[in-house]
Specification:
Number of domains: 1
Enzyme class: hydrolase
Organism: Malassezia equina
CATH superfamily: Class I glutamine amidotransferase (GATase) domain
Catalytic activity: L-glutamine + H2O = L-glutamate + NH4(+)
Low-confidence stretches: 195-201
CATH topology: Rossmann fold
Mean pLDDT: 87
Radius of gyration: 17 Å
Pfam families: SNO (PF01174)
Helix content: 10-25%
Protein name: glutaminase
Amino acid sequence: MSERTGVTIGVLALQGAFHEHIARFASLSASASHVTVRSIAVRRPDQLAQCDALVIPGGESTAIALGMHNAGLTEPLRAWIRDGKPVWGTCAGMIMLANTATGGKRGGQELLGGLHIQVGRNGFGSQVNSFECDVQCPSLGETPFPGVFIRAPVVEALGAASSDASPPVSHSPASMQNLFPDTPVQPIAWLPPASNASHALTDPSRIVAVRQGRLLATSFHPELTTDTRLHSYFVQMVLASA
């Protein structure tokens, strides 16, 4: 894809804010002269096969997991991740990509896995605790990114799962747990530091976006803003992945 002028990005369209992601990618294509971005809704394995990259949108992670299972997409998506293809998970999508998630329903839920983090579902609180906050993301420049947090997950641990996780806990399959052992998880965005928070950048609970190779995850909803910098960042990831 070194000379590529177009990419096709699939957005998992089973539940959640998939329309908004498709619209953001469409606006990128309309404004960019050097690359054409085509975004399609993915509801079946044959649609996934048409894509260069995939977005798992925000929504309700248990509903998304059930929808993937019913559509026969769970194992194709795991194979996609194992093959090292680009994936971006936002909010519920971050939960689906995590190797471990806490705070779910009793009995846990099905995760895709691959991303070496542990997240807590609804880590910032319930729906009434949703908030908007400027996010520090140096990869996008000095201007903060407008973070929209809706029942957002919180990063509880990078790398190995925390040993003091409270039940119920969901784990991805063992086959997904140890992917990409030589590729570390890199935090790329943080909540602004609280007063006297000298270790804000190393406190996992303040990390709101991570990248591990071709896996990207944000705990907030970039698609619910008019700022397309993260969508552009993901397109550049896709172009660089060839």
